[in-house]
Amino acid sequence: MGQPPNVLARKCASRRYLALVASKWSLLVINALDDGPARNGFLMRKVEGISQKMLTQTLRDLETTGIVKRDDHGTVPPHVTYELTPLGRSMRKEVRSLIVWVETHVPELSATTRS
Hey, which of 11, 24, 94, 101 has its CA 20 to 30 A from 31? Predict the structure, then answer.
């Protein structure tokens, strides 16, 4: 068996996954899906500022890694929903904690950020 995962190691796969799940858009999409399944249009409205292209790419990346499940209802017009998988739900607490920390510390972060 190989070495245990070490995100600080250049070639460790965990680094790639961390980059994916910790991206700005991934965190916001995961947070938006915290309330349950959602359609693309809802996510576009909920995650303000995300482009359709970036939302599509983010959802595909999260689906590929098993964090989000895409459910095509097979209807015309198309009805597709996205929801967190058990793996995705297992990270809700951590994602929410990070978001709450940032929102709580906006004044301090703003005071020390250089323009």
Answer: 11
Query: What is the value of pTM for the model shown?
Result: 0.88
Q: Is residue 34 part of a domain?
A: yes
CB within 8 Å of 56: residues ≥ 6 apart:
40
Tens place of pLDDT for every residue, the chain, 115 residues?
A: 577 889 899 888 898 899 999 999 999 999 999 999 999 999 999 999 999 999 999 999 999 999 999 999 998 888 999 999 999 999 999 999 999 999 999 999 898 876 5
Counting the structural domains of the chain, the total is: 1
Per the structure, the complete domain to which residue 79 belongs is given by 13-112
DSSP-derived pairing of the beta strands 38-39 and 80-84: antiparallel
